[in-house]
Design brief:
Rossmann fold, alpha/beta, 15 strands, binds zinc ion, six-stranded mixed beta sheet
Length: 424
């Protein structure tokens, strides 16, 4: 595992020290990237070693098979992974389209890709000795933080919209997190977390009790965990690039992380050729990136009245919008928004014809894929890796509502027999 050389601002390229916990660039509030000594990495990190080490060591499970390109700490203070087996998810070959591969991130702990970023961010938080982590979330990041914080013995304070998928509420409570449901969107949750932390600082709360904001792109390690999706898709395709990557985009950290992975892998000589076109897929009810892309803007505008059952896409203004839009343009990809009816139709289509129960976010990607196949812009033989970012089973309440599906009959409100469980 490599030592971090520095943390570099994605906007002004200022370097800050990784010796203490960092949030944003102190000069311009840009997101920070983890940088390694690439000359050292070229000597020590070999792609040939990855599979053998993963097979030989239980601590190299999942995304930690890429430990030789993840932070290590100092020799006398090594990073100890907080892992629940995240990553190394299946790459499913479509039954209908010869070029389509679905990366099934629903196989992660807590059922979504969020496990990768928060697995690494909580690992580093523990390494730094942080004791209170706070996150505003559209739902799934909160569930993942709750799980990894429980595994690390750290307190989690989660803030999410009151109408998140019910699974996100249940898992937060089950993992013992401090769960706060807010009458608003993730942007309102982010404001509240910021205000609470400012209050704690202003009232001289002891340093170890002040919350650390582990928001998307407001600390450097969630991107670092998400980048393993880029390493994985290339390794699973025999160390080659696909023609395109389809990625449901709320906060967009996965897209940013994968692009960083491609840069690193090219520098290490692990992959060559043309980078994939990156597609950011959104819902019409909350499409700040698609709107900005259509108008050739370098940043997004706050998307008003965000409303879609693809809960993870209800991010009205992603913090890393300037990075996402830059990647779309550089890669030759684009952003596409689909409406909820089309997303629901795609959920049912892929469930019935492929056996895959997509999350609404994943179905925003398949809906866009199908649209481009029909228009002829994509061929069914073009090699595409499409991310199903979460398990459809985490959204049964929202998908059922979109389907107007109710349980048949009325269930009894009390149990008919006594015994261990007494009637209510
Ligand atoms: Zn900066």
């Amino acid at each position: 595992m490599p030592r971090i050389a520095s943390l570099e601002c994605s906007r002004c390229h200022n370097h800050v020290s990784p010796e203490t916990p960092q949030t944003l660039c102190p000069l311009c509030a840009g997101s920070l990237y983890v940088r390694y000594d690439m000359d050292e990495l070229k000597r020590t990190a070999r792609r040939e070693d990855i599979a053998a080490r993963a097979a030989a060591s239980p601590t190299s499970l999942g995304m930690w098979r890429y430990a030789n390109v993840l932070p290590s700490g100092a020799p006398d203070n090594p990073v100890a992974p907080v892992t629940l087996g995240e990553g190394w998810t299946p790459m499913l070959h479509s039954k209908r389209y010869p070029g389509l591969y679905i990366k099934e991130e629903g196989a992660n702990p807590t059922g979504t890709f969020k496990a990768r970023g928060l697995g690494l961010a909580v690992t580093m938080a523990k390494h730094y000795g942080l004791q209170h982590l706070a996150v505003p979330s559209a739902g799934n990041a909160a569930g993942a933080l709750a799980a990894y914080a429980a595994a690390a013995g750290i307190a989690a304070h989660i803030f999410m919209p009151q109408d998140v998928p019910f699974a996100n509420y249940v898992e937060g409570i089950a993992y013992g997190a401090d769960v706060n449901l807010i009458d608003g969107l993730i942007s309102d949750c982010a404001r509240i977390v910021g205000e609470r932390i400012k209050q704690q600082r202003d009232s001289n709360t002891p340093a170890n009790e002040v919350w650390f904001d582990i928001s998307t792109l407001k600390e450097p390690y969630r991107v670092e965990g998400k980048k393993t999706m880029g390493y994985e898709l290339v390794e699973q395709l025999g160390w080659t690039y696909p023609d395109a990557v389809f990625y449901p985009t709320g906060g967009g950290v996965g897209l940013i992380g994968m692009w960083k992975a491609f840069e690193e892998m090219e520098a290490l000589g692990w992959v060559t050729g043309r980078r994939p076109k990156m597609y950011a897929l959104q819902a019409s009810g909350c499409a700040p990136i698609a709107t900005a892309f259509d108008h050739h803007k370098p940043t997004s505008e706050f998307f008003p009245n965000a409303d879609t059952f693809a809960a993870g896409l209800r991010v009205p203004k992603p913090y890393g919008d300037y990075i996402i839009l830059d990647i779309l343009e550089k890669s030759g990809g684009k952003a596409i928004a689909s409406d909820d009816a089309t997303i629901l139709a795609s959920i049912l289509d892929y469930a019935r014809n492929e056996g895959i129960f997509l999350s609404p976010e994943g179905a925003a990607a398949t809906a866009a894929y199908d649209q481009l196949i029909q228009s002829g812009e994509l061929s069914p033989t073009d090699k595409v890796v499409l991310f199903n970012t979460g398990a459809g089973l985490k959204y049964t309440d929202m998908t059922a509502e979109a389907m107007h599906l109710r349980r048949p009959g009325t269930l009894p409100t009390s149990l008919p027999v006594g015994g261990i469980i007494t009637p209510q």
